[in-house]
Request: fold
Amino acid sequence: MLPVECIVRGYITGTGWESYQKNGTVCGIKLPEGLQESDQLPEPIYTPTTKAELGLHDEHITFEDTVEILEKQYPGKGGEYAKTIRDCTIQLYQKCAEYARSKGIIIADTKFEFGLDENGNVILGDEMLTPDSSRFWPLEGYASGKSQPSFDKQFVRDWLKRNPDSDYLLPEEIVKKTVDKYKEAYELLTGEKFA
Reply:
């Protein structure tokens, strides 16, 4: 696996929104003035992070940092690998976001991870487009200028923020609602009943 998490954002939300409010940028990328929370961005942006050890937080890095990190690990290939994973990340997001939208779901942002096969070719690895690695919103009722209801782990994050003394123990009601949201997203995307 390559030591970079490939994040693509199609909408401004979460930590991206917080950063934009402070200085008009997301991960160092200057965005147009006047955006509101949950606005769709003019074009998806690539905002990679380091791949942190378990229990630590990933750190935002630039494309140039990605080249440097990959060049250290794969001399002579850093630029090629960095460009490939960036381009694949954006293309995958665009294709998947278009499909999801046709099924009533907005993919606000997502994360992809890539590795190398035995011949040194970049390949997709790890999870892809799960509620743990993506932010899914219902298209119905979407309106910028506020946070959106979600089909993803944001529901759990929001509960934990409201209950900081929970010691990360979720009540059964929150677990059930989260599972129900995941099932609803699955059924919308696949057109099949969750078994």
Summary: The longest helix spans residues 78-102. The chain has a mean pLDDT of 92. The longest strand covers residues 105-116. Residues 11 and 40 are 4 Å apart (CA to CA).
